[in-house]
Amino acid sequence: SSFHIDCGSKSSTSFEGTAFEKDGGVVGAATFFVSQSEAWAMSSTGAYLDNADVSDDYTATNSSILSIPDAEVYTTARHSPLSFKYYGLCLWDGPYTVTLYFAEIMFTDDKNFSSLGKRVFDVYIQ
């Protein structure tokens, strides 16, 4: 059994010949949803308290033009102020191969405050 997730995408995409399922569920301060295929689920916790806007967007969208094959897989990403997790559902005991693809789409290179940043990932597979 295998599954492929396009994190934050509103539509399914293809990357390197593999179909990735969309991750377009509505996310809020405390969210749990199961994918349409029921192969995986996602949970997210935390609220952005920086303004009075209650409709915080938990999806980042790339504003740069990418001239690489299958660029659409790098156009959206999920983010969360506290916790963000994916769960594989109904997996059998045995070995699995996990591949993660990362691209920086939040920080720009335009020499202003938004170009400064650091990413920290804690990846747990159990």
From TrEMBL:
Domain Malectin: 2-126
Origin superkingdom: Eukaryota
Matches recorded under Gene3D superfamilies: Galactose-binding lectin
Any Pfam family: Malectin
Protein name: Malectin domain-containing protein
Species classification: Eukaryota, Viridiplantae, Streptophyta, Embryophyta, Tracheophyta
